[in-house]
Each structure stands twice: as structure tokens, then as C-alpha cells.
Amino acid sequence: MYSLETLKNNYLAHCRVQKELNEKTVKAYRIDLTQFIDYVSAYDEPISKDSLTSYLAALHTTYQPKTTKRKIASLKAFFHYLEYEDLLEYNPFNKMRLSYREPKRLPKTIPAGTIQLFLNTIYQNYQQTSSPYQKRCILRDTAVIELLFATGMRISELCNLKYPDIDMENYSVRIWGKGAKERMIQIQNSEVISALTSYMDAFQKEIAQSGWLFVNRLDSRLSEQSVRLMINKYVTQAGISMHITPHMFRHSFATLLLEADVDIRYIQNMLGHSSITTTEIYTSVSMHKQKAILSEKHPRNGMEVNGG
Fold it and tell me: Is 247 annotated as catalytic?
């Protein structure tokens, strides 16, 4: 029997070559499996029901349910690989009942008025600065934020856009989602189109040289961290008190469309969700807002009725 470390490395190579998983996913698997191996190394039988049960209990007491669920999924996939390759006589997962008490968390959204204030701040910055360098930077920032909100794409999807992915003749963008799934989103707002056109005209040389749609000052791909820092900068300048993340623009995109009576199936396709169940979380957000509106705004609440 090979050592667990060797089995882990063989499995990671299998994930990278055979399953064609990206490096980010492989890295997560490596971390999770290394943690498991370190824990069970003290057992005489590292791969046994006793060692696994003990490890799962430790996960539940150490991590939040969502993280625990992910780490167990990594482990189950590893054990399944060992079983499939006949490297494991008995898979202890086969007769284990797993349950997760994962609290239902509603997606955090940005109020429409706050988004408007945020965008106004960016455009005002452009008008007020006289520095050509600053104007170029703000053109890029404007295009990034406008496209992020206009399409509801993930920050990773935005940062990985390449020049051929955007079609400014038909005003559409090709997005490569999880599992290399492709989807097309139309861009139908004139100000968003104008922001993208101005940016692409100003950065035409850099885009052509790098191949990426959004570039940094080193003419390479704009990083996700750069977008986060960009958002934090304009949040501060706008005097917005709430913490805003790139993913909140995606949540707001979905929730505001749902509140505008857009069919949830269309929203599912635009977000790139493989299951409608994932999209239905936004229904809970919408109902949560409905409850607040009816409790605070309904005219009946202010009526004094005799005998009522």
C-alpha cells in the first residue's frame, strides 16, 4: 500500500490531468487532504471508520458548516478515487450518514440608491480630475463596475475576460463560468456601452498586447484583489457606510431583477446557475424585503379604526 502522501499526490495529478480541474481547485484539494493526513497520521489505521469519524467530528467543532461541507466533499472525492483505482479495500464513507446544519444565509445586496451614489461618485471623479493618468484609471474603473453590475457576473469571470469575449457590434459579452460553462449576456444600457467604449478606446494598445479585456498598470490581467481595493476606494469617497464586495453587485443584479418581476428562469441563465435551487435563494431575499415593506409602508398600519 502506498503512503497517504503518495496517494494524495497521485490524486492531485489525476485532478489536474484527467479531470482538467483548474489550479485554484487543485490547491483547495491539496490543503484539505493535507489537513486530513496530518490528523489521521497518529492512527494505526489512518483510513478507517474510526479515524474518519474522529476527523469529521473535529471538522464540525472547528469550522463553519459551509467550510466543513466543502472539506468533506474534498475527502469523499479522494476516497472515491482510491476505491475506483482499487487502492482501497473498504470505503468507510459508503456506510456513513452525513448531515450538515448549515444556516440559511440570505445574500447581501446593495440598495439601488447606494449603487446610484457609488456610480455617481466614480463619474464625478472623472469630471473633477485633470490628470490624464487618473482619467485613464477612472475610465477603466468605470467600465469594470458598470459591467459587473450590468451582467451580474462573478469577479473571477470579469477578471478572466479576454478581448474576443466582448462584442461591441452586438453589445454582448461571452462569460466563461464554473466548469468552463459558456453563457452570453446582452449589454442593453447606453451608459454601460459608453463606459466600455471609452475604456477600450483609451486602452486599445494595452488590451491588444496583453489579450485581457481589463488590464493593470503593468499591462497584465487585472486581479480580483485590485477590483476589491477599487471598490473600497470609491465606497470611502462616496461616504457609504456599508461594506461592499464585488459579489454583492451580483446579488443585487439578481434581486433587483426578481423584484422587477423578471422570471427566475431567465435570472438563472444569466447568472450561470446549473440548478434553479441555487437561484431560488433570491426569492427569499425578495420575500424578506416584502415583509419589511408591508410592515413599515402599508397604509393600514397608520389607520385608526374604531373597534379594530
Answer: yes
Q: Which amino acid is at 181?
A: K
Average pLDDT, the chain: 89
Annotated catalytic residue 136 = no
In SS3 terms, 41-93 reads as CCCCCCCCHHHHHHHHHHHHHHCCHHHHHHHHHHHHHHHHHHHHCCCCCCCHH
CB neighbour class for 302 (10 Å; exposed up to 12, middle 13-18, buried from 19): exposed
Active site residue 234: no
CB atoms within 10 A of CB 33: 22
Confidence (pLDDT) at 307: 60
Q: Which of 27, 178, 291, 298 is catalytic?
A: 178
Which secondary structure element, helix H or strand E, spans residue 185, and what is its range?
Answer: strand 182-186
- Active-site option among 8, 71, 154, 221: 154
pLDDT band at 291 (very low <50, low <70, confident <90, very high): confident
Go through the domains of the chain in sequence order and give each one's CATH number. Answer: 4-95 (1.10.150.130), 112-294 (1.10.443.10)
**Number of other residues whose CB lies within 10 A of the CB of residue 93:** 17
CB-based contact 254:267 (threshold 8 Å)? yes
Give me the half-sphere count of Cα atoms (radius 13 Å) on the Cβ side of residue 81. Answer: 20
Contacts for 127 with CB less than 8 Å, ≥ 6 apart: none
Q: What is the pTM of this model?
A: 0.66
Cα separations in angstroms, 88 against 4, 94, 135, 189: 11, 12, 61, 56
pLDDT over 90, % of the chain:
57
Q: Which three cell numbers stand for residue 51?
A: 479515524
Hey, what's the cell of 126? 472623472
Which member of 49, 60, 228, 247 is catalytic?
247
What proportions of the chain, in percent to the nearest 5, are helix, strand and coil?
65, 5, 30
Active site residue 76: no
| Placement of cell 487543485 in the chain | 26
Contact criterion met (CB below 8 Å) for 252 and 149: yes
